[in-house]
Amino acid sequence: MSKVAIAVSCHPDDDEFMMAGTLLRLKEAGYEIHYLNVANGSLGTAEHTYEDIVRIRREESIAAAKMAGAIYHESLCDDLEVFYNYETLGKLVEIMREVNPDIVLTHGPYDYMEDHVNTGRLAVSAAFCRGMRNYKCGQKFPPTLKEVAVYHSMPHSLTDSLRKPVVPEIYVDITPFMETKKAMLACHQSQKVWLDQSQGNDAYIKELVFRGKFYGQMSKKFDFAEGWIRHSDVGFGAENFNPLVDDLKDNAFMVANPEREAWSKLAQDIKDSIFE
Ligand SMILES: [Zn+2]
After folding, report:
1. How far is the CA of 246 from the centre of ligand 1 (A)?
2. How much distance in Å is there from the Cα of 124 to the middle of ligand 1?
3. Hey, how many other C-beta atoms are within 10 angstroms of the C-beta on 188?
4. What is the CATH number of the domain that holds 115?
5. Segment 222-253, tens digit of pLDDT
6. Where are the beta strands (DSSP E) in 66-185?
7. For the chain, what is the domain count?
8. How many whole angstroms separate alpha carbon 33 and alpha carbon 77?
9. Is 110 exposed, middle or buried (0-12, 13-18, 19+ CB in 10 A)?
10. CA of 32 to the centre of ligand 1 (A)
11. 123: containing domain
12. Segment 124-137, tens digit of pLDDT
């Protein structure tokens, strides 16, 4: 059975900006890939009605997921209604149990807008609840205790909401997938129109290229890259369960962190002496 990865992004097009290159890399490595926008894009327009823009953005997202060869999941709520609440979390737990992923890609707790931050929080908790049999929502699929690793994408603003730089600890080489990533973003035609009006021609494709190049240069290894920070392993899997780095082999690497390695070794040594 193939391994599974799910990208839990916030709005239609966030996946393309921050996660799609890695998702395509994982597919190349044999993973089954899943695509979910938690919000439906209801506010991303200056011209359409609510019903029209939700329908348009759903169709655009389905086209982008299809282009990636990903399994599409329906959005869970409206834009700016991505709240850390029981209803949305329950829906996401249901998806997490159905998909049963090895890897969850999502936003980080340091992003520029609340919808993104809340999406990341919801994805983390949904993965955490995957094995809790008494969790009231999500009973359609059996609980699972399969190991899962959660990775946070780089913020859209490159910095956190207080303008501090967010530096990746993992880099994934997305160079061969830049054209597909651009084509996936171009599926979100309504956003091209919306951003061209406010920021100039093809601004969103140029933004995507800029981001790939920026993290590529930061990696000092790849031409174009996506950056990631791994979530804590507690409640998710073993400390050394790091499939994004291990399964992508030469196409990804983790920056050495001697301070954390020393910290971890000290903890392990003390545990070994107590729990022997
Ligand atoms: Zn967004």
Report:
1. 29
2. 17
3. 25
4. 3.40.50.10320
5. 999 999 999 999 999 999 999 999 999 999 99
6. 71-73, 103-106, 149-153, 170-173
7. 1
8. 22
9. buried
10. 24
11. 4-275
12. 999 999 999 888 87
